[in-house]
């Protein structure tokens, strides 16, 4: 119960098989009251129904949490919506102590020459600008409260290495490294830590789509694609949602009070730097 009495917001947490739901459940298991946030419904071509957390699914996840889970529909591309999410945490639960920028687009994967300006903007707007809006809104509340806080961005192995068909995704995740380093310097005076967690591949709902997509591109079955992936990871398997969730919980705890500006690999040894 390292997080007893804390209030956490997790964006992009409205899909049952997603990283966000796993993170929310881990934070709740350690004592936090958690706000489950997601976009709620499709809004444009970049937010298809099968790739987002819908309102009913968000509510079901929140209902499964101990310690006062709640939901809030938020489009992280809209700073007004993001600020309203931060305000909701305070009004509904009394404070805002933890903010996890988990919302992301990892399903626009195309060869370089096929990426449109709209594709590029969609990924950057959610993965990088959305994280910036979240960081800014959370920091404002945490600084005003005067007792510090924890901000964690879910980056990726793609924050450290490049991958084909993932130009915007890789650029957005590399951008989180710079954002985190700068924000950590500025917010340290307020006792607010800012860190990234960088998982390798995790077979969430989105991860399953990526498995099928890249297996087809490589002319492999999904089973062969996954076996080849496991073979190049020193610990012999892809990541699990719980691996990332455990790292987030650690960074949100007092055990990590002296860690900030870091990008922690959670990759089974696949990403060494």
Automatic annotation (TrEMBL):
Coiled-coil regions listed: none
PANTHER family registered for this protein in UniProt: 3-OXOACYL-[ACYL-CARRIER-PROTEIN] REDUCTASE, SHORT-CHAIN DEHYDROGENASES/REDUCTASES FAMILY MEMBER
Keywords noted in UniProt: Oxidoreductase
Highest taxon listed in the record's lineage: Bacteria
Identification of the protein by name: SDR family NAD(P)-dependent oxidoreductase
Family (UniProt): Belongs to the short-chain dehydrogenases/reductases (SDR) family.
Keyword Chloroplast: no
PROSITE patterns in the cross-refs: ADH_SHORT (PS00061)
């Amino acid at each position: 119960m390292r997080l007893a009495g804390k209030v956490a917001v997790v964006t992009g947490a409205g899909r049952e098989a997603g990283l966000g739901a796993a993170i929310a459940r881990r934070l709740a298991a350690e004592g936090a009251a958690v706000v489950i946030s997601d976009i709620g419904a499709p809004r444009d071509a970049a937010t298809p129904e099968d790739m987002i957390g819908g309102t009913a699914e968000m509510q079901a996840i929140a209902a499964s949490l101990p310690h006062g889970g709640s939901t809030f529909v938020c489009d992280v591309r809209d700073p007004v919506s993001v600020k309203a999410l931060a305000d909701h945490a305070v009004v509904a639960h009394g404070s805002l102590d933890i903010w996890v920028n988990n919302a992301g687009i990892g399903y626009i994967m195309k060869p370089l020459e096929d990426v449109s300006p709209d594709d590029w903007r969609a990924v950057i707007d959610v993965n990088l600008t959305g994280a910036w809006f979240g960081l800014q809104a959370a920091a404002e509340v945490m600084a005003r409260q005067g007792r510090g806080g924890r901000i964690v961005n879910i980056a990726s192995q793609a924050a450290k290495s490049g991958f084909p068909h993932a130009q915007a995704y890789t650029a957005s995740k590399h951008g989180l490294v710079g954002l985190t380093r700068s924000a950590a310097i500025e917010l340290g005076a307020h006792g607010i830590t800012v860190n990234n967690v960088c998982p390798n591949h995790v077979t969430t709902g989105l991860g399953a789509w990526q498995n099928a997509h890249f297996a087809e591109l490589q002319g492999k079955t999904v089973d062969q694609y996954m076996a080849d992936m496991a073979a190049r990871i020193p610990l012999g398997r892809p990541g699990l949602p719980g691996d990332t969730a455990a790292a987030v919980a650690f960074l949100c705890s007092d055990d990590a009070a002296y860690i900030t500006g870091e990008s922690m690999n959670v990759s089974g040894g696949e990403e060494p730097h």
